[in-house]
From TrEMBL:
Domain Alpha-L-rhamnosidase six-hairpin glycosidase: 29-323
InterPro entries according to UniProt: 6-hairpin_glycosidase_sf (IPR008928), 6hp_glycosidase-like_sf (IPR012341), Alpha_rhamnosid (IPR016007), Bac_rhamnosid6H (IPR035396), Bac_rhamnosid_C (IPR035398)
Domain called Alpha-L-rhamnosidase C-terminal: residue spans: 325-397
Enzyme class: hydrolase
GO biological process: carbohydrate metabolic process
A Pfam family: Bac_rhamnosid6H
Protein name as it appears in the record: alpha-L-rhamnosidase
SUPFAM superfamilies: Six-hairpin glycosidases
Catalytic activity, EC: 3.2.1.40
Reaction equation(s) it catalyzes: Hydrolysis of terminal non-reducing alpha-L-rhamnose residues in alpha-L-rhamnosides
Record's keyword terms, sorted: Hydrolase
Length: 446
């Protein structure tokens, strides 16, 4: 495991679950965690791991070490097995204890109490390998991107992991610990806003990735949140609709844009073919995900980078959830949401996942008459929340009659959003309805 983003992937096959669990057990047996609680940057760690101190002064980093919480949590979300949380909980606590002490180091006499909750006391990889630091004739390089972003990114992950550990403690019915870590999350969140948002409402580290992380981790609210999303979109537009996020922020940028009303911007990033972009790699013949967006330069020069490096592969997770329309709500997909999204360049998708409850499928297609054909397979002992978007008001009554006839429950119509939502239990369903609009990406990009 390197950065925590490694486990944001959509599905984890049983054999992969076993492999990741064994790596977590290595940490549990003190092989990859120090006495002080640091999680080593690599697991399994190479023999020369301690040489890292010669270069950065440390063998751990925010985002990388936080994998001790994030990976077990994602495994639990996919498989509904609490044992992985129970097994790793002591190591999670130990890591957070180390983070707290490291952040507060030498700040006993600080004039402002909030500074004890800023993790700015050591080197971190930050938003590693930001494209604008890696590309061009004289690139500044990854260490420069780390130095530029390490403090806000590390503090953001401090807050996120504190909040996540509170959720894990709730699942394990450790309410006292849940309350403690929730309170810690609040303090770190407050400190983040005080330290890294300036008077104009912009981030002190004015990069796509820093805004993305702050928004994804819910560290901003009100006017600060509004200005952050506006600035993120502005930075994307100034970069000719090209991504400029590093390892830690890239898993979140598409969701941040879509959840804040900028789905069209997300599609422009998805369909971008200039470097850096996902389709640039495809155009260059990639069959795996590269470590660097420009591992093969436009002139064909091959760089000294890994050509099988997961971090940027997180787009697959978003594609399955947002385009494929399959998103877990309950652990193990005991409850899941089906809500496909589309544009004029995406009018068909088919998603299949083998959950612990059995196979689930979502298949949809939009024809030239703007009619949506949706097929869903819901496995036994699960509940699907089906959300139909952009429904033509003229077909609402017929659609409602059909849903009632088929015995679907909790049917609701949200007129403002043009959305129909209902609940379905196990079985197969076929639904047809007309949509009223579709994102015209081709017109926007012409």
């Amino acid at each position: 495991m390197t950065p925590a983003s490694v486990c944001w992937a959509f599905s984890i096959a049983p054999e992969v679950f076993s492999t990741i669990s064994s790596l977590l057990l290595k940490i549990q047996h003190q092989q990859e965690q120090t006495e002080e609680g640091e999680i080593l940057n690599y697991c399994p760690a190479p023999k020369d791991i301690w040489n890292d101190k010669k270069f950065t002064g440390t063998i751990s980093s925010a985002g990388w070490g936080d994998a001790i919480l994030i990976v077990p949590w994602v495994l639990y979300q996919r498989y509904e097995d609490k044992r992985i949380l129970e097994q790793c909980f002591p190591e999670m606590e130990k890591w957070l204890d180390y983070v707290q002490k490291s952040a507060a180091q030498n700040k006993e006499n600080a004039e402002d109490d909030y500074t004890r909750y800023l993790w700015d006391t050591k080197f971190h990889f930050g938003d590693w390998m930001i494209p604008s630091f890696m590309l061009g004739e004289k690139p500044r390089g990854p260490i420069a991107s780390a130095v530029a972003t390490k403090d806000p990114i590390a503090t953001a992950y401090y807050a996120y992991s504190a909040g996540l550990l509170a959720e894990i403690a709730k699942v394990l019915r450790k309410q006292d610990k849940a309350d403690y870590f929730h309170n810690l999350y609040g303090k770190v969140k407050e400190a983040f806003g005080m330290a890294y948002v300036n008077d104009s409402g912009l981030m002190t580290a004015d990069y796509q990735g820093v805004y993305t992380i702050a928004l994804a981790f819910n560290l901003l609210s009100g006017e600060q949140k509004k200005k952050a999303i506006e600035r993120l979109v502005e930075l994307i537009k100034k970069n000719d609709y090209k991504i400029d996020t590093g390892f830690l922020s890239v898993p979140f940028i598409m969701d941040v844009l879509c959840e804040n009303g900028y789905e069209d911007i997300a599609y422009k990033l998805l369909f971008q073919t200039a470097c850096p972009s996902w389709l640039y790699e495809v155009k260059k013949g990639a069959t795996t995900i590269w470590e660097s967006w420009e591992a093969i330069k436009p002139d064909g020069t091959v760089g000294a980078f890994s050509f099988n490096h997961y971090a940027f592969g997180c787009i697959g997770d978003w594609l399955v959830r947002h385009i494929g329309g399959l998103t877990p709500i309950g652990p193990g997909y005991s409850k899941f949401k089906v809500e496909p999204h589309y544009c004029d360049r995406l009018t068909y998708a088919e998603t299949q996942y083998e959950s612990v409850y059995g196979e689930m499928k979502v298949k949809w297609e939009i024809n030239e008459e703007k009619k949506m054909f949706l097929q869903v397979m819901v496995p036994a002992n699960t509940i699907a929340v089906i959300s139909l978007t952009n429904v033509d008001p003229d077909c609402i009554q017929d659609l409602n009659d059909y849903l009632t006839e088929m015995g679907y429950t909790n049917c609701q119509y949200f007129e403002k959003e043009g959305k129909v939502e209902f609940t379905a239990s196990s079985g197969k369903m076929n639904i047809e309805f007309k949509i009223i609009e579709i994102c015209r990406l081709n017109e926007q990009m012409s």
